[in-house]
Specification:
Its cofactor is FAD. One of its GO terms (cellular component) is endoplasmic reticulum membrane. It is a single-pass membrane protein. Belongs to the FMO family. This protein has a four-stranded parallel sheet with strand order 3-2-1-7, with helices on one face. A three-stranded antiparallel sheet has the order 4-5-6, with no helix packed on it. It has a two-stranded parallel sheet with strand order 8-9. It has helices at residues 13-24, 65-68, 85-98, 120-123, 195-204, 232-236, 239-248; strands at 5-9, 28-33, 105-107, 110-116, 126-132, 135-141, 143-146, 187-191, 210-214. It has two domains: 5-146, FAD/NAD(P)-binding domain, CATH 3.50.50.60; 158-214, 3-Layer(bba) Sandwich (FAD/NAD(P)-binding domain), CATH 3.50.50.60. A hairpin with a 2-residue loop joins β5 and β6 (135-141). By secondary structure, it is an alpha/beta fold.
Length: 252
């Protein structure tokens, strides 16, 4: 019996693991990656690319290696608990090499469309149109795994800031931020106290004249490192903390 063919869209963290899972289940994966390399979000680029997630140069992952590593391939002991983006990418490279995944990836290949076959109700198959070097190709697959991530498009609600069109300074989303050099000697306001907002406010403060951090509500600021030097997410992932959060709510 012929193996079922599965299309995997994207060769980031999810795409790589999907390829491996398909192989373990006796399926035939074909991964399409629009860029020329693996890594997805974690492959730093000097300039943001349209349709692709973007990170800043100093990004350090906010999940410890003990909590984020793949269960079948631990992160090396000599890596720090919280890794720089370059180390996360290197870990993915080691993972892909260990399980020989690269040969299943078609790089610089864009998926143009995915639609059901005319006989989908009986075959369950999908028609996938891809493009590489200006040439389109049509293939039929038994399944499609979409691994394109969800940090691709910036949310910049300018309508929430009346008068922004009169502002003479520069404004942009954190997706377009790369390093603090351009803010040297300037007064800067960072809007939002999520992970990116906190990171950028601290980093820009080293070069800017003054930095403000604006948030519409209060927030708990936790150190990545907890009691006795253990990663905070490792300490919080316990049954007692789970039950306390259920009783007291997520704001605990």
């Amino acid at each position: 019996m012929a193996k079922k063919r599965i299309a995997v869209i994207g060769a980031g963290a999810s795409g790589l693991t999907c390829i491996k899972c398909c192989l373990e289940e006796g399926l035939e994966p074909v991964c399409f990656e629009r860029s020329g390399d693996i890594g997805g979000l974690w492959r730093f680029q000097e300039a943001p690319e349209e349709g692709r997630a973007s990170i800043y140069q100093s990004v350090v992952i906010n999940t410890s290696k003990e909590m984020m590593c793949f269960s079948d391939y631990p992160i090396p002991d000599h890596y720090p608990n919280y890794m720089h983006n370059s180390q996360v990418l290197e870990y993915f490279r080691m993972y892909a090499k260990e399980f020989d995944l690269l040969k299943y990836i078609q790089f610089k290949t864009t998926v143009c469309s995915v639609k059901k076959q005319p006989d989908f109700s009986t075959s369950g198959q999908w028609q996938v149109v891809t493009e590489c070097e200006g040439k389109q190709q049509v293939d039929v697959f038994d399944g499609v795994l979409v691994c394109t991530g969800h940090h691709t498009d910036a949310h910049l609600p300018l309508e929430s800031f009346p008068g922004i069109e009169k502002f003479k300074g520069k404004y942009f989303h954190s997706r377009d931020y790369k390093n603090p050099v351009e803010f040297t000697g300037k007064r800067v306001i960072v809007i939002g106290i999520g992970n990116s907002g906190g990171d950028l406010a601290v980093e820009i403060s080293h070069t800017a004249k003054q930095v403000f951090l604006s948030t519409r509500r209060g927030a708990w600021i936790l150190n990545r490192v907890g009691k006795h030097g253990y990663p905070i997410d490792l300490l919080l992932s316990s049954r007692i903390m789970y039950y306390l959060s259920r009783i007291c709510g997520p704001s605990l």
